[in-house]
Specification:
CATH architecture: 3-Layer(aba) Sandwich
Largest sheet: 5 strands, parallel
Structural class: alpha/beta
CATH superfamily: P-loop containing nucleotide triphosphate hydrolases
Distance between the termini: 26 Å
Order of helices and strands: EHEHHEHEHHE
Number of domains: 1
Strand order of the largest sheet: 2-3-1-4-5
Strand content: 15-25%
Helix content: 40-55%
Shape: globular
CATH topology: Rossmann fold
Length: about 160
């Protein structure tokens, strides 16, 4: 099974993924960790959104290959990949359908004020789920970038509210 963990910045996707891992036999793929280890050390000031999106696309190619291996062993894939856009989520739904893999969306619908407070606390504490600092500018950008899942996407999905 593929679990799509969806929520805007600061909604608790990584924390939720870690809890889900304890209840299912699963492996977490967290794009923040991949970005922090594989890409951020090479980023320059001139590198912007397109630079990140290209690298995320390459990382996801590897993730898709690993999902197929996990499926053969009966191990769930927990995708903490942001999944901010309908089309991004659709990519994984199509992959699941073409490979006959069950998929479930988990939407963390947390108020903006709560999420912003969490982000600032995470930046300060640099605890277990901290990978890199999220600025007010980053947070504001994601507010305009994020697309909530549609009613159709949420059929048989899990909605998490505060």
């Amino acid at each position: 099974m593929i679990h799509l963990i969806v929520g805007n910045t600061g909604s608790g996707k990584t924390t939720y993924s870690n809890k889900l891992k304890e209840t299912v036999k699963g492996i977490i793929f967290s794009i923040d960790k991949w970005n922090n280890i594989l890409f951020l050390p090479d980023k320059t000031e001139k590198d912007g959104l397109d630079w990140f999106l290209e690298r995320i696309e390459r990382a996801e190619s590897i993730i898709l290959s690993l999902i197929l291996q996990l499926e053969r062993t009966g191990t769930d894939a927990i995708l903490d990949l942001g999944l901010s856009k309908f089309e991004h989520r659709e990519k994984f739904r199509k992959f699941a359908k073409s490979n006959n893999i069950e998929i479930k969306i988990h939407f963390l619908d947390i108020p903006k004020e709560t999420r912003l407070q969490r982000v600032f606390e995470r930046n300060k504490e640099k605890g277990e789920t901290f990978e890199f600092e999220v600025t007010q500018e980053n947070f504001d950008f994601m507010e305009s970038w994020f697309e909530k899942p549609t009613k159709k996407e949420m059929i048989d999905g899990i909605l998490v509210k505060e």
